[in-house]
Specification:
The complex is a heterodimer of chains A (about 230) and B (about 250). Chain A has ten helices and no strands. Chain A is an all-alpha fold. Chain A has one domain: Orthogonal Bundle (MetI-like fold), CATH 1.10.3720.10. In chain A, helix 1 packs antiparallel against helix 2, helix 1 runs antiparallel to helix 8 and helix 4 packs across helix 6. Chain A is flat, with a radius of gyration of 22 Å. Chain B is of the alpha/beta class. Chain B is built from nine helices and ten strands. Chain B is globular, with a radius of gyration of 19 Å. The chains are: A mainly alpha (about 230), B alpha/beta (about 250). Chains A and B meet through helix 5, helix 6 and helix 10 of A and helix 2 and helix 3 of B.
Chain lengths: ~230, ~250
């Protein structure tokens, strides 16, 4: 009874705060898109270096991956925002959050790219080399176009995880979706409605992304491809 | 092309043990031998895909085994057809052929398409130009791979068991294309178990076993009256398999 009496009021309150949360959501999307793009660039370069014949390049790539993967994103954010000013590097939270989350995601995406590269049959590489392609051409024209197609689901997975992890940027004062919610709560003291709506917003974005992933997969699908390996 | 005293081991496994082979310009050589005898390794050594432990390979006057040799330049003149997975799955048949022409040989795009279409006509696949490899049968894929090898106008054509991965009913169409190609005067080295094909096409048959050349000579000698015991045993095994094949088909008619 009590709940049904309250319901119209709850909904009205949620609608009233939605525009503010939407601004936070847009900032979350900004951080998400920029850092994912940065991570993808880093990931492809690092993944390629990781499988390269050059020991040094492979070692550099491996070190990057291990260091990032071995430390919490929260600590990386805190270090970059509160630690780096001590050596004179002072950046606003909006930039630190994108750089740190992008750097973090790059390490994970590098491993995804590496697995994609290694899933391409050795014969495809031999064929490409036998045709006179340089190693860089083999990678660019033969390996990566096939590898990237195969890892789309894993990359979307990473993107979804990244959107949610970007909530950590709230600890350095970046007003993204979660921080925006906390803000509203400090004014209204209504955590139930606010966090519910925050969660709903995250879910809506992540669900839309998964659906988009299916679309993208179908778009770049190679006709008859899976028959080849049957 | 000459191969001199080639050695190659994978770990403890000695694949090539001092193999030597000379092939004259325009000659068609068929290599036969049991699996694991080093045939594929030999072909891969010839284009520098596998580095031999010892020994030398010369194509014309270029020493392939010299670390300073530009393998890219060498491979531009050599066509190679692998057993399977020849085509790049993300590209149409046409793009499979134009890619090396444009990116490796520097042929302008339109000219590359013309050359590719001509090569496809020669293997009877002009109507498949815009298909993707996975939409083709295994036999069509191998024919497309042959077309790609021909499109670069190679001086030397290497084929590593081009019909071994195929269903029996698809083998003939590929052999037919190979027969046609063999009349063009390109130097060819073909690894195959198709003895009839070897008899028809080869100027010389080379039997390899245990990483060395056991016996070589014109097909009527090596295939019809082999001198070595190992050659006889190998041929008997292969020919028995062939004799057994028609019976299988009689049991399972279409």
């Amino acid at each position: 009874m009590i709940f049904s009496d309250l319901l119209p009021e709850v909904v009205r309150f949620m609608i009233s705060i939605a525009p503010f949360l939407l601004r936070g959501l847009i900032n979350t999307l900004r951080i998400g898109l920029l850092s994912f793009a940065m991570g993808l660039g880093l990931g492809v370069v690092t993944g390629v270096l990781r499988v390269s014949k050059s020991r040094a390049a492979s070692a550099v790539a491996a070190t990057y991956v291990e260091v990032i993967r071995g430390t919490p994103l929260l600590v990386q954010l805190l270090f970059a925002y509160f630690g780096l000013p001590f050596i004179g590097i002072r950046l606003p939270p909006s930039i630190v959050s994108v750089l740190v989350i992008g750097l973090n995601s790059g390490a994970y995406q590098a491993e995804i790219v590496r697995s994609g590269i290694q899933s391409i049959p050795q014969e495809q590489l031999d064929v490409a080399r036998s045709l006179g392609m340089r190693e860089s051409q083999v990678m660019r024209h033969v390996v990566l176009p096939q590898a990237l197609r195969n890892i789309i689901p894993a990359l979307v997975n990473e993107f979804v995880a990244l959107i949610k992890e970007s909530s950590l940027a709230s600890v350095i004062g970046e007003v993204e979706l979660t921080r925006c919610g906390e803000y509203i709560i400090s004014r209204t003291f209504r955590p139930f409605e606010v966090f519910f709506l925050v969660a709903l917003f995250y879910f809506a974005v992540c669900y839309a992304l998964s659906r988009l992933s299916g679309l993208l997969e179908r778009r770049v699908r190679i006709p008859g491809y899976f028959r080849a390996y049957r | 092309m000459s191969v001199v005293d080639l050695h190659k081991s994978y770990g403890d496994l000695e694949v090539l043990r001092g193999l030597s082979l000379h092939v004259r310009g325009g000659e068609r050589v068929v290599i036969i031998g049991p699996s694991g005898s080093g045939k594929s390794t030999l072909l891969k050594c010839i284009i520098g895909l596998v580095k031999p432990d010892r020994g030398d390979i010369y194509i014309d006057d270029v020493r392939v085994t010299d670390p300073k040799t530009n393998l890219i330049e060498l491979r531009k003149r050599v066509g190679f057809v692998f057993q399977s997975n020849n085509l790049f799955y993300h590209l149409t048949v046409l793009r499979n052929i134009t890619l090396p022409l444009v990116k490796v040989h520097g042929v302008p795009e339109e000219e590359a398409v013309e050359v590719a279409m001509k090569a496809l006509r020669e293997v009877g696949l002009e109507d498949k130009a815009d298909s993707y490899p996975a939409e083709l049968s295994g036999g069509q894929q191998q024919r497309a791979a042959i077309a790609r090898a021909l499109a670069i106008n190679p001086r030397l054509l290497l084929m590593d068991e081009p019909t071994s991965a195929l269903d029996p009913e698809l083998i003939d169409e590929v052999l037919e294309v190979m027969r046609r190609v063999s009349r063009r005067g390109i130097t060819m080295i073909i690894v195959t178990h198709e003895i009839d094909f070897a008899e028809d096409v080869a100027d010389r048959v080379v039997f390899i076993d245990g990483g060395v050349v056991v016996e070589e000579g014109p097909p009527h000698e090596v295939i019809s009256s082999p001198r070595e015991r190992r050659t006889r045993e190998f041929l008997r095994r292969i020919l028995r398999k062939r004799a057994a094949a028609p019976r299988c088909w009689a049991v399972a008619p279409d």
